[in-house]
Amino acid sequence: MPPQDNPKKRKPDAASTASTSKRARFPGRPQHTIRTMPTLTAYPNGELNVSRFMRAHENEIKSLEKAMKAAKKGMSRRAFQEVPRELRRRTGSHNPQRVPKRLRIQAFEEAKMDNTPTAKNKSGSGIGKGRVKWLRRQGIEKSRKGRKKRDKNEVTVTAEAGAKDGDAMEVDMAKGSGTQKTAKVKKRKLPKLAVPGMPASRFRRRQLNKTWLPTHIWHTKRATMTPPKEPLWRFAIPLAPATKTYRLTHRAATLRGAVAWDMSYMATIGLEGAEASLVGLLKGLHFAEEDVGRPWQDKGVGKKWRNGTRALDGWIFTREGNPPRRIALVTVIWSVPDHSETAKRKVFIRVHPSAFLQLWNEVIRIAKVQKPSVVVEDLRFEIGSIEMMGPAAAETLSSIFRPVNAKNTAAGSPESIWPTLAPITNSGLLPEGTLVAFSCSDPRLRDPPMTAQALQDTDEEALTETLADWPVDRTMTTPFIFDRKSRMAAGRTMPSQKSINRRKGAATPGEYPESRSTDPQIPMLIYVSRRTNTWTVLLPWKCVAPFWRGITRYPISTGGNPRFGGLDQIRQVSYEHSRPCFPFDFPGTNAGWIWELQQRVVRKHEWIKRPKGKRVEWNTLDFGTGKKGELGDPWACAWERLMPPRSDSEEQQADPEPGASPFQYMLASDVCALLDGHTTTQLPLSLPVLFTVKVSMVQRGVPRDCARVYRLPTNNAELREQWLALVPDSQHSGAARRQKRRAVTKDPSTEDRTRTLAASLLEPPRRRDGPPQAGDADYPRVPDEEDLVGFVTTGNYNLAEGRPTAIANLTLHRILQPRDGIDAGKRVHLCIVREAGQTLGRRPARTMSEDTAAGEKASDGGRQEAFSSDALADLTKDILEDVLYTITHRTVLASHRTEKLLRMQSAATQAESLALANLEPQSLKGAPGPQAAPNAETPAAKYDNGLVHLKGNPLKTTPEIVCPHCKLPRLMHPIRGKGMQHPDLSRQYCKLYPFVTEEGLDVYGNPFPTDMAKSKKERELIKQQQKSADKEGTPGSQDADAADNQGKEIKQLDTGGKPASYIPWHTCPSCKRSLLITRFAQHLEKCLGISGRQSSRNAMAKMQNGSGSGLGNTPLGSRMGTPAPGSQGDGIGKAKMKSGSPIKKLDDEDDEAETPEKKKKKKSSYIKKADRERLAKEPGSLKVKLKTGSFSKESFRDRDKPSASPEKPEKRERDDNDADGAPKAKKIKLSLGGKAEDTKVSAK
């Protein structure tokens, strides 16, 4: 059967089947165009301004080089290969939609040339494919449901005129043909939860069950996001960058650089009402209760906080409950008061999204009972935020967030103070809870960003006075971020990226576009948290993305760009600062308990995914007490096993809500006070209470999440002593080992060392001294379950402290439990940590569970001690003196060592030179024999057959330094500038001169390039003046002449500095010629054939010939043409023949120029004797050399005419006269013995 066409198979193009020639895989692209600028502004008043001229042509040169590179690479790279490697998709090279927009057209062209099908998003049904199909079906279904609802019943609501809120209203319900009237009371509306804005149609389907952050598109290409079907707190949140960032994040957050996070998922609750109502609401929620009333004082931080110039962090509690439960850590910000009677105040409450719903319900309940009422708003999708941390955070933010009309602001205002904060590298220098608010401009107008100018013009005294006085407290006005209209206006007036690009394209190259009155004024508020050491920026939701891109592209003054982080980096930074992170380290709150339940499922799923041979078999764990198996769930923190025993009545009363934590949370400071006997807490001790501690490992072992924390054994005194024996004694730290090493003989003999080595090899290995290590047979076992006190919530190796640490939560009732046979008053700061799945407990760790909070530093002995101001001043003075002494000592030591090495090398060089100079060459010796070894001796060294022995101190014996390469002495002082000394001009010195220190010159004595170049006439005039001055010369004394001569000779010694009117050079990328930058543009036009007379001729020739080959016709504009062969007859005169073709002359000249002229060998006039005899017998021709000075050209022509033969035309006349006009000697060939007509005269 004949083969049939497969309809599913791609059919080739008709154009491809018509031609049998192979199609090019990468077709040629059009020529690149170079944007140029008029150079009229470079010649003001007819003068050449080099700086302006260079700026005018800078863009052309860069564009030309860029176009040449792009044209070179354009034919060898596909579109998807232009994407950076870290941003490429694994299987997206075939789809043009999977590449950036700037490469999408090129990808479509390549797909078309390769005959690759592309999706058209169309279908025969008309609904569409992909997202278009889903959107249209969604709209059809929505309209169908609406029609059904309208057909079912119709409701009409009318209200009487003058009806007030709460009055009865008439409701007419038309159902069929009858009507029914009912009275309905209007209910009071409750605050509604915010709904995210409608996303774009192409992204709508992906945001059904979650919301994207403003920077979601930016993060998806660079970070690991939450799974699409498992969002966190109904947001798609970046978890961590796609690259390794653990150490880089630590360095950027603490040492150099900055880390930024998009924290727009943090919830914001807005409150509006009278100040008394707002204060009553916050007091009802027990805000900042741990500060003992400090926020409500009428002085200090509390007064500034209520005036809207400070931000305050603190815990917020539930309204009801005995005792009230902690909800979350929040930040409360007040608006600046207007000082009017009817003005209302506004408050922002910033809370983590995991605790938002619980706090929202509590705020609504307490807002109902406030008189006058308080308006509550959900601002989650109206206000976004960015957080930054690190030494360069202030520098980056001050450069990106630029105030509008900052030059016209008053002194002391936030707009004028903000740029001066760029040099701050430690947020602790600012006042506590610093808050700054103003309106800033669009950062895209200043893209790419530049390093902050304030870093170069830093005035430390002025900055110190500003931080001490902080005038923002007096000049702060109500921030526009509290106004909904301002927030919405900023989002609506944001220009598109296309309009921004047009404005940047119309601006002068290298400069930013000018601001306009229609540019958006974006309200912004920045506050600094001393608790977390972060800078937080609040701004409208739709304005976050432009500022985020500017932050990530900002060039930090110390190098690099700010890094970005995810949820893992937030936990890492908090962990390294020994600060628990909410909600991950707070299982005593509802948000932390829900997080723990979610992580149990995740850890169990990861364990199930592993192959059975690589899983940990929890049931086989043996702890040495006859019990096997892990305590509780191995992939969970089994807090249920730590619950205190309860009676039946207490269990019936304690019926927690779904998702509520069965534990209460207590601060570590309250626990310390409780252990010291100062009871300040209201929590009954019978309740299960958790508190956060920090655990530091004493020796080896890294604690991980879910690790078990045990106290020292309480029912086994022997086991307790074994664990206490493992604690290293701080009083005997390594002293015995150092003393033992010092006791060893300093210089043992070779025999003793050999004997000791043999004994150590034959001796059996002994157990190392000290306590047993993990894995040894006598290592103590893990305590029982009754000594289990808590679990590790975050553990790893702490880069900030250089040792493993962990953050754990312990139960209070087990810490306070009485211990059998142990003094209750004796405080012990030790615990035992065991990782889940391990049978060995690690060496006891010092904890801060009983005396120090997790956010503080603790000493080994217990509490921290405070120093007086005088002690701190003395300590600071001693440290500064030690630092200065160390720097000076190291500098002097390095200089001394360098100078001594140079003198040693000079002594060796002089001795070697003297030895080689005294060595007698082999050719001058009389008798052959072995060559003597070179030897020489100088006052500083002795040279003996290649070995140099120094004599004494080279700093004393070697007065000067000799170059080892050129063997010449070096100058010890510079020739000009600071520290110069006149050298001995009778000697020759090495060309490696000391560096010059003089204003306007570099270290080599060359002047820096200037932008004022002198014209040719000015340079000639200066040369003439110098020549005339040298010729005239005023007569003076011999001393003056000697000084002048010495100055000239010193100038000759100089390295040859460039003149003050120096103009840089540039190499042409085409012909590799080096030209002045002022003539470079003109050269490019000629070198590339863009302009010039010849280019116009070639163009006209192509236009006339059609094909452009130029064969057969003379180009237009040519003054002389080359006649075709055979176009002239034989009757042409000799004069025309002699004139020749100009083109031929040019070709001959080129050939002569290219081929070197060959010297002709002169023929001797001597004739051999045999030839003379033969010529004498037989008449013939004889060559005779005659002087032709008496003959002229005309006479030679007349004599040559009768004897000229028509077969052999004469050679062209050449003018070979000498420079003085006399003709050169000629060789004349005469025929003797013949007739007159046979006489032949020819000049050779």
Automatic annotation (TrEMBL):
Keywords, in A-Z order: Activator, Chromatin regulator, Metal-binding, Nucleus, Transcription, Transcription regulation, tRNA processing, Zinc, Zinc-finger
Sequence ranges of Basic and acidic residues compositional bias: 744-755, 1014-1033, 1168-1177, 1194-1215, 1235-1244
Domain POP1 C-terminal: from-to ranges: 690-841
UniProt main location, coarse: nucleus
Record bears the keyword Glycoprotein: no
Pop1 N-terminal domain mapped to chain residues: 53-273
BP term (GO), one: chromatin organization
Compartments, record wording: Nucleus
Entries under InterPro entries matching the protein: Pop1, POP1_C, Pop1_N, POPLD_dom, SAGA_su_Sgf11
Hydrolase listed as a keyword: no
Family to which the UniProt record says this protein belongs: Belongs to the SGF11 family.
Record-given protein name: SAGA-associated factor 11
Organism the protein comes from: Sporormia fimetaria CBS 119925
High-level lineage: Eukaryota, Fungi, Dikarya, Ascomycota, Pezizomycotina
